[in-house]
Predict the structure.
Amino acid sequence: MKTTILYVLFLITTALTLVNRYTPFYINNSILHFIILFMAALTFVLIIGQLVRKLKRSRSQLLAFLIVGVLCFIKSFLTWGGDWKTQTILYKNLTNDSKTIEFQMRGDRFSFGYKKRVINRLKLFPGFDWTTNVDTTTINHMQWKKMNLYVNEMKLASKQY
């Protein structure tokens, strides 16, 4: 039973990690992203430990837990560019309330300034979005309502960017 749960957890977390990396699927919360990455790595290490008949004792499993946690933290710290934050909701879809076109920004961690993007965001679940870049000059205005709702998730002092 434990082995089955371990394999299922590995498959789910690895699939989420790969889908987040290679598709427009986006995990929009850095803590949730870290937990999924950590669970994928930890379950992989525990499965390999079972296959080579190691990591049988609680002490060795705890040590594996700590080492994987530290390595995932270092990886996340060095590679995570920051969360995209919505500054302005430009348009809202008339038929699907979960679909918006947003202007988003994120701070560059190791340089000065911000990265900016305009995206079509479909909110799937809390913490999970489907995002695609969009050109607002080519959208069908029959499907979208202009909002220009200033959200300022980055808590910037000035009003518009």
Summary: The chain has a mean pLDDT of 90. The first strand starts at residue 25 and ends at 27. The radius of gyration is 20 Å.
